[in-house]
Inverse folding.
């Protein structure tokens, strides 16, 4: 098992950029979640239990621009934390930060390739990449003492949710909105915890 992370930032511009990056990971997810809740609440006829968040970003929805900008901001937060992790880990376990960066790019992709009922495949393909990257990233960071238990628990829960989602799709009746919110909420909470751990490390 890998030891605790060292702090590679000892002041100067790198320290400022690193703190900004991890603060994005701490602050962006809860703000984004609140904005998406408000967008769903204010969208006529929207059912958050059975309808995915992506519906809020499709063309013609009243808050599509705000929702897609929120997706993009979350993607940038993932990329920022991935960069901070990459710098902190040095030559160790860079696959985890790389997958976080992939997840960030996929979130930006979800914002750009917004849901289109007439051509659903591009958006679904980007979303699939996002879900897989979010599932595997905690596993690849679980070898570091600071996040071992949390990362393993997040990975196991994410796999269980993916399996439940597939079963629900095959047999019908999956409450897609509730499923997606549970999956993404779990992984966003993990991101906040990782970013907060990095922030505490930078203060040492």
């Amino acid at each position: 098992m890998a030891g605790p992370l060292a702090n590679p930032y000892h002041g100067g511009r790198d320290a400022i950029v690193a703190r900004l990056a991890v603060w994005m990971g701490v602050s962006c997810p809860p703000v984004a979640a609140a904005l998406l809740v408000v967008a769903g609440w204010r969208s006529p006829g929207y059912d958050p239990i059975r309808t995915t968040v992506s519906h809020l970003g499709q063309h013609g929805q009243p808050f599509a621009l705000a929702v897609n900008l929120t997706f993009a901001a979350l993607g940038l937060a993932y990329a920022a934390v991935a960069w901070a992790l990459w710098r902190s880990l040095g030559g160790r376990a860079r696959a985890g930060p790389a997958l976080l960066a992939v997840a960030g790019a996929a979130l930006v992709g979800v914002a750009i390739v917004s849901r289109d009922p007439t051509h659903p495949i591009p958006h679904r393909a980007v979303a699939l990449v996002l879900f897989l990257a979010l599932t595997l990233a905690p596993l690849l960071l679980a070898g570091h003492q600071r996040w071992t238990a949390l990362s393993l628990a997040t990975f196991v829960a994410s796999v269980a949710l993916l399996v439940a989602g597939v079963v629900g799709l095959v047999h019908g009746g999956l409450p897609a909105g509730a499923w997606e919110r549970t999956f993404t909420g779990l992984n966003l909470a993990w991101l906040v915890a990782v970013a907060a751990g990095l922030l505490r490390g930078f203060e040492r």
